[in-house]
Amino acid sequence: MCGIVGYIGPRNVKDVVVGGLAKLEYRGYDSAGVAALADGNIRIVKAVGRLSNLEEKLAEMPISGHIAIGHTRWATHGKPSDENAHPHQDCSGRFAIVHNGIVENYLSLREELMALGHEFRSETDTEVVAHLIEEMYNGDLFETMIAVGKRIRGAYALVVMAKDHPDEIVAVRRASPMIIGLGEKENFVASDIPAILEYTRDIYVMEDGEMAVLRRDGVECFTMDGEPVKKDVYHVTWDAVSAERGGYPHFMLKEIHEQPRAVRDTLRGRVSDDLSRVELPELGLQDEDIQAIDRIHIVACGTSWHAGLVGKAAIEAFARIPVNVEIASEYRYSDPIVTDRTLVIAITQSGETADTLAAMREMKKRGVRVVAITNVVGSSAAREADSTIITWAGPEIAVASTKAYTTQLVALYLLAVRFGLSRGTLAEEKAREVLAALDDLPQVVEQVLDTAPQIESFAKRYKDAHDTFFIGRGIDYAVSLEGALKLKEISYIHAEAYAAGELKHGTLALITDGVPVIALAMQPELYEKTLSNIVEVKARGAFVLGLTWVGNEDLEKTVDEVIYLPKTMPLLAPVAAVIPLQLLAYYAAVARGNDVDKPRNLAKSVTVE
């Protein structure tokens, strides 16, 4: 899940590559480095830690040339260090390489290469590839990379430059994401679009198993067997400013406040003007196809998995189809029971989550139809699924996901209504009610954002808490899981979520005087039950912050503090209820002095298993 940038052209290579890495630092920030070719030699500068450390080194040791590659790392093989930072070289220094992914057979290759006399400087799997290139080099860099690709196994995006090839960069993609930027007398390669958007909006999206040769005057694409591939140019339409903070102190806060717009954009064009039906032509399913579905498996990781739990409730309520929600990293190893009547819904913000892609591919092998819900047009998930629903959240830069989650919920609600209408399990009158409530959600979210001052005050008071508990029943519990994850991710406060009725089965032993408990009471049919559970934690000394609808003033008799949210349909409550929890995590992290957008040990796009 590292970030890669490569450039060939007349510009200052340091500005292009390091500037691009700054846009990709969300993909990893354990170390960074850059290699440039000038005067017949490859010069490498790299540094452990944030990109700013590399920039300081480059100020003392400037690089020049017309061809360069760079990398920002999220460590998998080898601890963060200068030695393990990319780019890596071979023994002779003729080749330099950057890599995103994992070389699964690196140990056997390393032993083989060491037996041939190669000396290694790092603990990484990537350095193996550099030495393998040296060993297999036949005078043609492109042909050598075809041969190297046949020797290595795993998921990887590789970008290579060579002293003997000063006018070309070779890029190889196997599973890990990579795009090519097309310019005038210059070309770019990167892990993601924001890295190059300052310079070009025309790109090639490299497919799995493709290679590219970049020169100043053009780009050629091939299969990994060397067969030419004709590529369509994808023109990027979103604004580069959307990938910047826009005046907010952190990307996360900006993205939290972008949720009314993100929800609105995800709904746009998908609900008929008379609110009678859902328009999802991209789904590619006719009524008879939907009627034939007898089970749905939702497959996802982390925040997307939490969205799937809400999606299960909505689909089962409206379409009456049994739904399993599966953790993607476990799914394909569990020998899931599927048939030609099973539908898999894969949810991934980036569209590049390795575990989710692996689950998708396994289901495709079994002949199961896969629908992807993703935020990235042209991502692996979008291309490999049978059909794709794009969540128009826009670029999400902060590692902790916010607007991606709420737009995933909207996409799942739309699917649930579409399925329910097709199967006749959702009455048209009820569908209109749901779609009207969805249409009102952007305004509801805007009102919820007004709770920020109250949330900030609470976060400052409890920033030093060692433990925090989130409780709820039904889909409130699903939202509690997401709230706890957010708090853990960026504030580093230990947090756990529990179905409120489970407290008496052991968890109450953890409740002591002053422990913060965030209690969600958004579901009318479970409201009184939830109040009883709140009383249980209050009796053990907890400080309880309650979330409920405007009008439920009796909650004040049971909790210490209440946040009132504007009313919407109970099944849509997660979109409203999660926002105070996102703000709580954000303000707690700020109060504790943490790096909100780049929490320790985490990266935005998890492209390794």
TrEMBL record:
It catalyses: D-fructose 6-phosphate + L-glutamine = D-glucosamine 6-phosphate + L-glutamate. It is found in: Cytoplasm. The keyword Ion transport does not apply. The active site is at C2 (nucleophile), K604 (for fru-6p isomerization activity). Keywords: Aminotransferase, Cytoplasm, Glutamine amidotransferase, Repeat, Transferase. Residues 2-217 form the Glutamine amidotransferase type-2 domain. Homodimer. This is Glutamine--fructose-6-phosphate aminotransferase [isomerizing].
